[in-house]
Amino acid sequence: MTYAAVRAHTNIALIKYWGKRDEEFFLPMNSSLSLTLEKLYTDTFVQFDEELTEDLFILNGKKQSEKETGKITRFLDLFRAQAGVSYRARVASINHVPTAAGLASSASAFAALAGAANIASGLNVDLRTLSTYARQGSGSATRSIYGGFVEWNKGTSSEDSFAIPIDEADWDIGMVIIAVNRSEKKVSSREGMKQTVETSPYYPAWVATAEDDLSVIKDAIKERNFEKMGEMAEHSAMKMHASMLAAKPPILYFEPASITAIQAVQKLREQGISCYVTMDAGPNVKVLCRLSQAGLIKEKLKDFFKEEQLLITGPGKGIRELTED
Ligand code: DP6
């Protein structure tokens, strides 16, 4: 097989990954845990072809620059080296991100690319090992190999810093994504986490508490205790942003509408609707909720946001090969 097409869904961390201890191999300072999402995914086709003289990368129908293609080349080299393949590749990706969300995701991108390169190169490593490859494209991609709730164990080396599926999330879990701003983020997560590690006096506290936070949320998931899980997810997100705010210069991803969203969620809780916020390296707010209450929450959020800014999604599955039929 010299070609394959694979779908991978994006994921949102409930215990955040923030900071690397090794930038070359993308080894994280702390373990993290996420929920894979159904509605946001990437489809990627990879074909190794002896006729090609260089790698080609087409994203959403558009040929990408040398710089963008270079990132793909470096990533495919991991597979070429292990599989003994020297051919260049044709890579075509489509991001299925509903316009409302405006969330292009490196997690689904590198998980789909890893999945397709694994098959197309004939390497065919198992999913756990594949997650260590995806990690070297983007840390959060490690977790997108699997569906439902997924843990990324920080490990001790490149070989054992992999993802493991924790729970299928088949128990009334959902998210309402609030697209506050669709434009490209000013500080990438890669730069943002580096600056936080190097300059924030609060960063050691982030690292010191992350493993305990992870064990609390794993217990909550095991007990199917939604409130315990949501409280911890919200705490992890706010603590990550607090560590960034204390960096020099400070890193601020919040926009006025992000605060509006957070306060709207607090108000919903006062009304007895169980829901919690999480935020990543950008202004968009994700509301963790019961899928059965997501419609009601969306209606209430329409007091502050437009219909097209709000997207409901349930849990998504792990990577899968796309066949022609
Ligand atoms: C805030 O995975 O985008 O979303 O490893 O440098 O590619 P790189 O960073 P990336 O960082 C994700 C950070 C986060 C939290 C998370 O997804 O755990």
Automatic annotation (TrEMBL):
InterPro entries found in the cross-reference section: GHMP_kinase_C_sf, Mev_decarb, Mev_diP_decarb, MVD-like_N, Mvd1_C, Ribosomal_Su5_D2-typ_SF, Ribsml_uS5_D2-typ_fold_subgr
Signal peptide: none
NCBIfam families: mevDPdecarb
Organism of this sequence: Jeotgalibaca ciconiae
EC number: 4.1.1.33
Coiled coil stretches, renumbered: none
Name listed for the protein in its UniProt record: diphosphomevalonate decarboxylase
Residue ranges annotated for the Mvd1 C-terminal domain, each copy included: 176-309
Domain Diphosphomevalonate decarboxylase-like N-terminal per the UniProt entry, residue ranges: 8-163
Keyword Transferase among record annotations: no
Gene Ontology cellular component terms for the protein in this record: cytosol
Family statement: Belongs to the diphosphomevalonate decarboxylase family.
One Gene Ontology molecular-function label: ATP binding
Record keywords, A-Z: ATP-binding, Lipid biosynthesis, Lipid metabolism, Lyase, Nucleotide-binding
